[in-house]
Specification:
single chain; alpha+beta; 3-stranded antiparallel sheet; 1 helix; about 130 residues
Length: about 130
């Protein structure tokens, strides 16, 4: 009986470790959402839109910042807010219209479950 009472805390401890390891492995296999920039050009204007696609339903926050430069003029636009994305359906999370000839840089990220994902490297330059 004494050997069983000594072994019980050890067995419980091993069971807790095994449970934690299996939970960590389940989280490691959970697919992460993807995000990207979608562009359309029409009538001399360019639409720049943030898009999120996730294999599971998620909620989170987004940040979309665009800086433009055209003919010596420059401007900055920042958008952000909360979004919800159903599983396997792309969702638009922000949109900005700029002159199609403008050079611009984009900073687009989402935060889901406390983890921030850089969708476009901060300050990525486009022409």
């Amino acid at each position: 009986m004494t050997s069983f009472t000594r072994a019980l805390p050890l067995l419980l401890g091993l069971g807790m470790v095994a449970g934690a390891v299996s939970a960590g492995m389940a989280n490691a296999d959970t697919p992460t959402p993807r995000c990207t920039i979608v562009e359309h050009t029409q009538n001399g204007m360019r639409s720049i839109e943030g898009s999120v696609l996730s294999p599971r339903a998620i909620t989170g926050e987004y940040r979309l910042a665009i800086k433009t430069r055209t003919n010596g003029n420059s401007s900055s636009v920042s958008q952000g807010g909360v979004f919800a994305a159903p599983a396997d359906e792309p969702v638009s999370v922000g949109q900005v219209m700029i002159n199609a000839e403008a050079r611009y840089s984009v900073d687009f990220s989402i935060t889901v479950g406390g983890q921030t994902i850089a969708c476009v490297p901060p300050g990525a330059l486009f022409t």
